[in-house]
Amino acid sequence: MLDYLKHLYEVAAGGILSKWVFVYPVLAKAGLVLLGAVFVWAVFKWSMKRVRKRIRKYEFVRTHEQIFDLIQKAILYALIFLCGIYLVNLFRIPVLEKVFYAVLIILLAIPVKDFTLLVLRYLEANFVKKTQTKIDDIAFDLLNKFSGVIIFAIAVLIALDVLGVNVMPFVAGAGVAGIAIGFAAKDTLSNLIAGVLLIIDRPFEIGDRIEVWTSPEGSATWGDVIDIGIRATKIRTTDNIVIIIPNNEIMKRDIVNYTTLSTDIRVRIPIGVSYDTDIDKAKSVILEVAKGAEWVLKDPPPMVVVRQFGASSVDLQLRVWIKEPRKRMDTISYMTDKMKEAFDRAGIEIPYPKRDITITKR
């Protein structure tokens, strides 16, 4: 009995000694590494704070302070990476190694996303804003919104592959789900595709004045483009009504753009005079009225043409070029008002339908 108890004591003592010899030194090393990493991180943050405070006097530093945040994140992830590699090699656990690398890949997606957004903002501020077209702003806005989703999706797929998970079924399932969603939301996808085509084809830009065919009855039929989204386009009419038109509907219709090539447009104003009127005199009066509007261009000069012989009038048409398309309706109103006064002074009759009735007796 005493021999058996002595044997148990020797086994227990040997196990404890083995634990002290092999386990505790490993834990001690891991603890020292973690403490060292925390110490390095604290010293680095303190140093960065002092450096940042001293160089804030420079304009470039004040306008690009997010660079310091990226540097701090890069150092933090570098410490995590180095400590993780050391600990994984120290404990030599295969499952832990795979999990560590998978988590590290997802964590690295954060600074990659931040750096991508920083580059996009820099390009947008220094190059895109200086271009005349505003469609580039829309493209960069879409990149800013979806770049993070794309980066994290790629990171998750790579992490799953590191863990030994076969990602092909997920990809295939995503493809099938995409087809099902495509059939269920074909109108939405159609608008999204049309939005991309609008960005590529650029039939109009933000600020252009275009015709609106879906305006409420009795309201203005044209307006300014205020937003080109991935799903719909917003147009503010001259009545200050915002009309949201799906991009798919826009791509199906003729787009009338008044400002795409130049801000100069020609306005046509119909005018009717009686058959007894001296046409040359009427043209002269009309041209004098047209020259009285300061926004009417002198080159090309205003002109008056005879369009046709109507039922009760000779139909003339005044054609003038103006500097600003948004004054089209003002031009028509001004010319119509002033020509009525000029015709009254010149004794030119503005005709109206007349009927002669002859009564005969039998």
How would you describe this protein?
The longest helix has 53 residues, at 2-54. The chain starts with a helix and ends in a 16-residue tail after the last helix. It is built from 10 helices and 7 strands. The model is unreliable at 4-22 (pLDDT under 50). It has 3 domains: 22-176; 201-252, SH3 type barrels (Roll), CATH 2.30.30; 265-346, 2-Layer Sandwich (Alpha-Beta Plaits). A 4-stranded antiparallel beta sheet has the order 1-2-3-4. It has a 3-stranded antiparallel beta sheet with strand order 5-7-6, covered by helices on one side. Helix 3 (66-91) packs antiparallel against helix 4, helix 4 (94-126) runs antiparallel to helix 5 and helix 9 (279-291) packs across helix 10 (328-346). The protein is 60% helix and 13% strand. The protein has 362 residues and is an alpha+beta fold.
Number of domains: 3
Strand content: 5-15%
- What's the shape? elongated
Question: Span from first to last CA?
Answer: 157 Å
Number of helices: 10
Mean pLDDT comes to 76
**Largest sheet, strands/sense/barrel:** 4 strands, antiparallel
- Order of adjacent strands in the largest pleated sheet: 1-2-3-4
Secondary-structure element order, N to C: HHHHHHHEEEEHEHEEH
Would you tell me the structural class of the helices and strands?
alpha+beta
What is the CA-atom radius of gyration, in angstroms? 39 Å
Tally the beta strands.
Answer: 7
In terms of per-residue confidence, which ranges show pLDDT below 50 for 5 or more consecutive residues?
4-22
Helix content: 55-70%
Topology:
Layout: H1 2-54, H2 59-63, H3 66-91, H4 94-126, H5 135-162, H6 168-184, H7 186-201, E1 209-211, E2 222-228, E3 232-237, E4 242-246, H8 247-252, E5 265-273, H9 279-291, E6 303-309, E7 314-322, H10 328-346
Antiparallel strand pairs: 1-2, 2-3, 3-4, 5-7, 6-7
Helix pairs in contact: 1-3, 3-4, 4-5, 9-10
